[in-house]
Amino acid sequence: MNQVTSNDTNSQQVCAEDVAPWVKAALFPKTVAIIGASDNPEKIGGRPIKYMRQYGFSGRIFPVNPSRSHIQGIPAWTSVEAIPEPIEMALICVAGDKAVAAVEACANLGVVTCVVISSGFGETDEIGRQAQERMKAAAQASGMRLIGPNTQGLANFQNGTLATFATLIGEVRPDDGPVAIISQSGAMSMVPYAHLRSEGIGVRYSLATGNECDLTVADFTWAVAQDPGVRLILIYLEALPNPDVLARAATLAARRGIPILALKSGVSARGASAALSHTGAVATEDRVLDAWFRQHGILRVTDMRSLVKSARLLLQSRRMAGPRLTILSNSGAACVTGADAAERHGLELSCLAEKTRQAIDTVLPSFASSLNPIDLTAALLSNNHLFGDVLPALASDDAVDALFISLPMSGKGYDAQQFASDAARFQLSTGKPTVMSCPLADTRETFEQAGVVAFEHDEDALGALGQLAKISLLQGQALRLRSLHQSDAPTPAPAVSERHEGLLSEADSLEYIEAIGIRTVPWRLCRDLEAMSAALRTLKGPWVIKACSAEIPHKSDYGLVKVGIGDMPTALNFFSDMQQRCHQLGKSFDGIIVATMVAPQRELMIGARWDEQFGCVVIVGDGGKYIEAMPDVATLVYPFDAAYAQTQLRQLRISALYDGIRGEPAFPLEKISKAVVAVGSWLQAQRGTIASIDINPLMVGVDGTLVAADALVEVATRGSLNRGNTWIAPNKQTISSTGFLRGSPSSRPSITKRAP
Which pLDDT does position 380 carry in this prediction? Predict the structure, then answer.
């Protein structure tokens, strides 16, 4: 390993004056105290000393152990208070109350960062949680930052700061490199390290955050994203307590072209109970997290292997212009299976220009085809220059974003050196990512030496290209949305009246939806038979007749919706029936809604809810009564614009209908996207006053119209949000005792129900 001290050029760049002091102390400390140090180099309190001495730590190590004068040949100290120098980092390797006392002692001495390796705290029981809170309180009082407790520790392989007891370091020799791994789990901070090192990839940081009572994965992602030597960040999370910090880190990484891959475990449906609407059931925590990662340019993966399998390509190629792929092989079968795998990984086959195909046809044998995938056939065995003849034509074609070479047949008779040289020349001259696959190790090695990333299996090669294409797209989108957020000036929207709380009636909800610019079906709220008669004479039939009650959000479940009513006497009879039914249910009765019945081409829905962590979450997609049973919706996290909403709508199963099928008109996607933005902007502007919004169905008419037929708005209950959870608004305003943002009541216009 290159033993680089903390005084080298890169470290000085990272430790510039604008970097937080805790970052310097955690990653580049000059003095480290180990409380609970052991003379046995294989014990938890002994390994950090062993590793730091073995791998070139240039700072001073202060073992603390009252029963020994020396630890592993280094003078030991009876207590941390006895150490004569200021301590930048302290490792706590003692248990229980001793660990709490050690943290308190370090806080009193002005230690900058404290790594609590000890376990038995918040991850165990209430007693442990209280002990952890005492640690946290002591640290906060002094400004000291905590890592852990229950952490494996921190490792900076660049300068030998190995404040960790990870056993794999003793088994897999470290080497400095361009990868940073940050993980809540100790094991998951080292398993990717082992896999990367087996492929010869160096790792700079392996950082485990444990219980995260203070510093988190997000904090360390922000820290390492500032290191000019880091070119790939891999993170493992079980929770995301501070998304704003990770958002800043992701923005910095995107600007620097550093891919961030995230593996998030602990998937749950906690968000399903966030509201009494369809939105709460469909916009679950995991879907919201997916959307948040996507909009911040972070590629979420599903397993540990996917976290590391593309590392070599991601380190070599920072960007891929698009998903269009050209496949080149000497096997027809590999061409077909490669095309199948490309589709699985979100890649598209390039549609080569006619002049490109003509140029290729002039060099291929007559029985070969210039269609993509390009099968060079067995002719490659007799003509080792086919690669060099075909690749220049592909190099000039703008439809080629990347190249995949599959060589299932290689070895004697094939000039692998020439093939590799030609592929490397193509990659260098075009800047287009190029990968190859071959089962023969010698052939792969030849390509690797030429600078072309090689894989044993086609699936892995195309998976890597798929990840690169996705990250390139996500980071580009993220930077655009970030600039949108920074210049965001929400359009003034109606504030919710202070008299409202909980679920609003359909009439109130429709009034708000109209106020933000979304058309509704023609409707009237009728409080008596006289008003209902007037409404029936005014509105075009046939009609939809619905009971209006803020206490009955889903009226059809109780027989309180009648559709296709064509005569006035029948319609009028429903007034007393529905009123009586509401009273039998013990629910309020606010009147009858009469609406013109609309025959839609399709029923869609738009919903939104306020999320405690991520703010405004919006869903849009297929609507109707089966929304929860068969959800086909896109999830978006504010901010976004109509263009982004359209890209997400295009990902849905119903997207095949958008452009019209069998004579049906196209969907008004622009209107739909603008409605999505209107809902999101309104809910965001309320800053938690509104808990959720449902517009279902949102009807797409055959004439290109878009109208809401039903709506449900849920106002947050007083002093709480999402059923009793405490909330503080992102703009740092607090919610008043009435449950609404502080401000003059006169500054919040109310909306009056429409009743004839």
Answer: 79
With left for phi above 0 and alpha for psi between -120 and 50, is residue 470 left, alpha or beta? alpha
- CA 235 distance to own-chain centroid: 11
Confidence of residue 267 (pLDDT cuts 50, 70, 90): low
Decide if pLDDT at 694 tops 80. yes
CB atoms within 10 A of CB 417: 14
Placement of tokens 């749950």 in the chain: 268
- pLDDT, tens digit (0-9, with 9 covering 90-100), for 230-262: 999 999 998 888 899 999 999 999 999 999 999
- DSSP one-letter string for 168-209: HHHHS-----SEEEEESSHHHHHHHHHHHHHTT--EEEEEE-
What sign results for the dihedral spanned by CA atoms 671, 673, 679, 681? Answer: negative
Between vectors from CA 419 to CA 413 and to CA 423, what angle results, nearest 5°? 170
Alpha helices in 283-385 (DSSP H): 285-295, 304-308, 311-316, 332-344, 354-361, 379-382
Reduce the DSSP state of residue 375 to 3 states and report it: strand
Q: Where are the alpha helices (DSSP H) in 317-409?
A: 332-344, 354-361, 379-382, 386-395
Tally of CA atoms within 13 A in the half-sphere of 327 that contains its CB = 32
Q: Map residue 244 onto helix, strand or coil.
A: helix
Q: How far is CA 177 from CA 19, 154, 299, 685, 710, in A?
A: 21, 16, 21, 45, 57
Contact call for residues 546 and 564 (beta carbons, < 8 A): no
Contact 310, 272 (CB under 8 A): no
- pLDDT at 486 (0 to 100): 55
Has this prediction a pTM greater than 0.90?
A: no
Per the CB < 8 A criterion, the answer to whether 539 and 756 are in contact is no
Type of residue found at 474: L
One-letter identity of residue 569: P
Can you tell me whether residue 674 is helix, strand or coil?
helix
User: What is the chain's length?
Assistant: 756
- Distance, CA of 231 to CA of 70 (rounded, Å): 40
Q: Which residues pair with 34 in a beta bridge?
A: 63, 91
* Token pair in block for residue 142: 């002094």
Q: Across the strands, what pairs with 116?
A: 92
Whole-number Cα distances in Å, 561 to 545, 571, 755: 6, 11, 19
